[in-house]
Design goal:
Layout: E1 12-18, H1 22-35, H2 45-48, E2 50-53, E3 60-63, H3 64-67, E4 76-82, H4 88-95, H5 100-103, H6 107-111, E5 116-117, H7 147-164, E6 167-174, H8 186-189, H9 192-200, H10 209-219, E7 224-226, H11 236-245, E8 248-250, H12 258-271, E9 275-285, H13 288-293, H14 296-311, H15 320-323, E10 327-334, E11 343-351, E12 357-365, H16 368-388, E13 393-394, H17 419-433
Parallel strand pairs: 1-4, 1-6, 4-5, 6-7, 7-8, 8-13, 9-10
Antiparallel strand pairs: 2-3, 9-11, 11-12
The structure holds nicotinamide-adenine-dinucleotide (NAD).
């Protein structure tokens, strides 16, 4: 008899999304269409992937939902916050990711999803000018609330949403713009007490609005997922809060186009012991995400996230002849005509036998939000699963979906970036939660 201690997925699952932009509306429209049988959730591991359980003659390949209790798409209820007041239908049309004829099939449901006022600080995303933002309750002026007031208002939003929509559980997902780079500051970010004090002191330099969303979610008993490269939950103070509230956290930055390719392709070079001289990655992108990332301070956040992928796959200390001092560069160029249809180019300079040079070129014409939507679904369903399984704190097994997986950098832990190792971690976690043996060694 299998021994699983996961609580059943009973009742409605609220998914509250920070941001109502291209990714969020593509995700929501897809889920609403899929559950009416109007489209297929292609790319979603929770809906398609099959895992081997058992060995030898007993082995079988079954879906995640046959191993662990997952929330059904029918039980999902969406809510969101955004700086702009347009409802999810209007926003999906504006984003121009999906065809109007697809969006229109679930227009009635999308129109019901109206963004709550955002906890927003213009200094964190200067290119955004919407005014659907929270104001201080006192004083009625044009200012923004203090960071602590933001937390309190967001907590109230979550409580109200949960009660109104009669949700049994809520997950909070950040699919909002990339904020400016907030370097980890030991004084503020290393203890929960210091972070709370900084929020109360309205320290706007070290406390990003995204931290207020995460703090509110965790204290309201909701898992929090960071889909952008923001520092937010990637700090010891938030790890402590997640432990204290016994909630899962996952981040950061959805792994979709170029980095998905990189984390899948770099192992080819490493596995065959070929050398690397340089890897140049560039992108053109024309949506609002691209516009925000055109601001150097916001791009810096993305750059740090994108650069971290190779270092842990092709390591100089393990193979000094092959991976010492390779040049790794990542660029994102805002180019409006392409909108959400991002194009990326990778030029990889490798070397082989006796050091002879070779080149590989990869040109990926992807659709950014089409790749991100299934990742959103999987991260939400699996974080909800983790909470019901009593797995709290950083969810390393969700690294598969993330560009810059969280890890305890204070103790020198390295993130796992190799896509295949990440897949093994994912499968093993599902097996364990389902009461099966986790039986693949991580090499
Ligand atoms: N699409 C991908 O493949 C992909 C991959 C990795 C990460 N991401 C990240 O996902 C995020 C969303 O991407 P997108 O293409 O949907 O962008 P988008 O610009 O279309 O949508 C983001 C929305 O967030 C809103 N917003 C900004 N700050 C907010 C705040 N404080 N509170 C509430 N709302 C806020 C904006 O008004 C905007 O509508 C970005 O950070 C992007 O970098 C996307």
């Amino acid at each position: 008899m299998r021994n699983t201690n996961v609580k059943p997925a009973e009742g409605r699952l609220g998914i509250m999304i920070v941001g109502n932009g291209a990714v969020a509306t593509t995700f929501m429209t897809g889920v609403l269409m899929a559950r009416r049988g109007l489209g297929k959730p292609v790319g979603s591991m929770t809906q398609y992937d099959k895992i081997r359980v058992g060995r030898g003659d007993d082995k079988k390949y079954i879906k995640y939902s046959e191993i662990v209790p997952l929330a059904s798409l029918d039980d999902i209820v969406f809510g969101c916050w955004d700086v702009y007041p347009q409802n999810a239908y209007q926003s999906a049309v504006y984003a121009e990711v999906l065809k109007r004829e697809d969006i229109d099939t679930v227009r009635d449901e999308l129109e019901q999803i109206v963004p709550m006022k955002a906890a927003f600080d213009h200094n964190y995303a200067k290119r955004l000018d919407g005014d659907n933002i929270k104001r201080p309750s006192q004083n009625g002026g044009n200012q923004i609330p203090t960071r602590w007031e933001m937390v309190e208002m967001l907590r109230e939003d979550i409580r109200q949403f949960k009660a109104e929509k009669q949700c049994a559980r809520v997950v909070v997902l950040w699919a909002a713009s990339t904020e400016i780079y907030v370097p980890v500051d030991e004084q503020t970010h290393y203890s929960l007490e210091a972070l709370e004090q900084a929020m109360k002191n309205d320290d706007r330099e070290h406390v990003a609005p995204s931290m207020c969303y995460a703090y509110a979610a965790l204290t309201e008993g909701c898992p929090f997922i960071m889909g952008a490269p923001n520092t937010t939950v990637d700090i010891p103070a938030m790890w402590q809060l997640a432990e204290q509230t016994r909630q899962p956290i996952a981040g950061k930055d959805f792994k979709t186009g170029q980095t998905l390719v990189k984390s899948g392709f770099a192992p080819i070079i490493g596995t065959r012991c070929l050398g690397l001289d340089g890897w140049f990655s560039t992108n053109i992108l024309g949506n609002r995400d691209g516009l925000v990332l055109d601001e150097p301070e916001n791009f810096r956040t993305k750059e740090v996230s994108k650069l971290s992928t190779l270092e842990t796959i092709l390591k100089a200390d393990a193979q000094p002849d092959l991976y010492t001092d390779y040049y790794h560069k990542v660029r994102i160029n805002y180019y409006p005509p392409r909108n959400d249809n991002k194009e990326s180019w990778d030029n990889i300079d490798i070397f082989g036998w006796l050091g002879y040079p070779m080149q590989i070129k990869i040109n990926f014409l992807c659709r950014d939000s089409i790749l991100a939507a299934p990742v959103c679904l999987d991260l939400c369903l699996l974080s909800d699963l983790a909470a019901r399984a009593g797995r709290y704190g950083t969810q390393r097994w969700l690294s598969f979906f993330l560009k810059s997986p969280m890890h305890d950098y204070t103790s020198g832990e390295e993130a796992v970036n190799n896509l295949y190792q990440q897949h093994t971690m994912l499968k093993n976690a599902i097996r364990e939660m389902g009461g099966y043996e986790a039986d693949e060694e991580m090499d």
